[in-house]
Specification:
mainly alpha, elongated
Length: 108
């Protein structure tokens, strides 16, 4: 049996998890904007309007199916959203925005 991890090691792991999830949610903003054909700021507004990860992933899935993408691209994106849904935070948890609500001049 190994020694219990130190408190600092646990905090580092929590920090890594937070960093990875923040990047994942930021990527969702860009995916939503790309699928909607809008700028990042509008994609951010759509993202923040939906208060759960499950709702955000559902939007991406519906947009992917609606856009009429090629089969390969559609299945690849749907596979990614499926894996995100199965590994992400609870669909009922409200997530805190990890990016500024209203960017200053110059964009996100």
């Amino acid at each position: 049996m190994g020694a219990a991890p130190s408190f600092e090691a646990a905090l580092q792991e929590i920090g890594r998890l937070t960093y990875v999830w923040t990047n994942t949610e930021s990527l969702l903003v860009h995916v939503i904007a790309g699928l909607m054909g809008c700028d990042k700021e509008t994609g951010l507004i759509l993202f923040l309007t939906l208060n759960t990860t499950r709702a955000r992933v559902d939007l991406v899935e519906r947009l992917v199916k609606h856009k009429g993408l090629g089969d390969e691209e559609m299945h690849r994106l749907l596979g990614l959203t499926k894996s995100l849904s199965s590994t992400g935070p609870s669909a009922t948890a409200i997530t805190t925005p990890s990016i500024p609500l209203i960017p200053k001049a110059g964009g996100i």
